[in-house]
């Protein structure tokens, strides 16, 4: 048990160091040596867990996707009604991105243009989140909360808008994402035919 705990601790240290290194140096400028130095481990320890710089970068992409997806599903479970669930998912994505800014930068900024393997992973993650949104939009249509529509297109448009807003914030800063959430929520809900009402306009 002690050995397993020690191995987990070493791997976590390497992953945490990689987040800092990639976020601040960028993928191309970062090297395995930088991650080893920042994690206070060794090349042997690094290569025990990860065969390459590419492998640890892809692992970090998966880690962020898993973190956000678990948070979204947990938040959705406590809400009642399809629209409330979709709103909860939107809020959790914004809040998690704000808390995990360095990880988000890796997924949404640093991973762009790195090659086919990274693009495949990025699109896979995009599809996962768009599917979550679509599932609840389908439920909202079924419940009569929103008009019948192409929910696949709507979920892709939602994700595209969210991705662009977060990416711009990660690169250039600006107003807090949380501060912009009410306006973004109004815009997105209006796009699927939700009428304004006090219950969500003033939330």
Commentary on this structure:
With 203 residues, the protein is mainly alpha-helical. It has two domains: 1-51, Orthogonal Bundle (Arc Repressor Mutant, subunit A), CATH 1.10.10; 58-201, Tetracycline Repressor, domain 2, CATH 1.10.357.10. The chain is 79% helix and 0% strand. It has ten helices and no strands. Helix 6 (101-110) packs across helix 8 (151-172) and helix 7 crosses helix 8. The radius of gyration is 19 Å and the shape is elongated. Mean pLDDT is 83; it is low at 198-203.
Q: Tell me what portion of residues adopts beta-strand conformation.
A: under 5%
Number of strands: 0
What is the CATH superfamily label of the largest domain? Answer: Tetracycline Repressor, domain 2
Return the domain count. Answer: 2
**What's the end-to-end separation, in Å?**
47 Å
- Bin the helical content: over 70%
CA radius of gyration = 19 Å
Per DSSP, the total helix count is 10
Low-confidence stretches: 198-203
CATH-derived topology of the largest domain: Tetracycline Repressor, domain 2
Task: Indicate the CATH architecture of the largest domain.
Answer: Orthogonal Bundle
Largest sheet: none
Order of helices and strands: HHHHHHHHHH
Question: What number is the mean pLDDT?
Answer: 83
Structural class: mainly alpha
The level-1 CATH class of the largest domain:
Mainly Alpha
Taken from the alpha-carbon principal axes, the silhouette is elongated
């Amino acid at each position: 048990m002690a050995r397993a705990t020690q191995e987990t601790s070493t791997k976590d240290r390497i992953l945490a160091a990689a987040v800092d290194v990639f976020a601040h140096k960028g993928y191309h400028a970062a090297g395995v040596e930088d991650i080893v130095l920042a994690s206070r481990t060794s090349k042997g320890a690094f290569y025990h867990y990860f065969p390459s710089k590419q492998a640890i970068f892809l692992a970090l992409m998966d880690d962020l996707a898993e973190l956000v997806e678990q948070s979204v599903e947990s938040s959705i479970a406590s809400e009642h009604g399809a629209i409330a669930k979709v709103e909860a998912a939107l809020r959790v994505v914004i809040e998690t991105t704000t808390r995990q800014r360095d990880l988000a930068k890796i997924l949404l900024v640093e991973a762009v243009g790195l090659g086919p393997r990274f693009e495949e992973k990025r699109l896979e993650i995009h599809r996962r989140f768009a599917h979550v949104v679509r599932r609840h939009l389908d439920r909202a249509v079924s419940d009569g909360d929103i008009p019948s529509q192409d929910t696949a297109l709507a979920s892709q448009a939602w994700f595209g808008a969210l991705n662009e807003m977060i990416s711009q914030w990660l690169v250039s800063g600006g107003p807090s994402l949380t501060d912009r959430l009410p306006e973004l929520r109004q815009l997105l809900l209006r796009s699927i035919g939700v009428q304004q009402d006090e219950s969500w306009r003033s939330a």
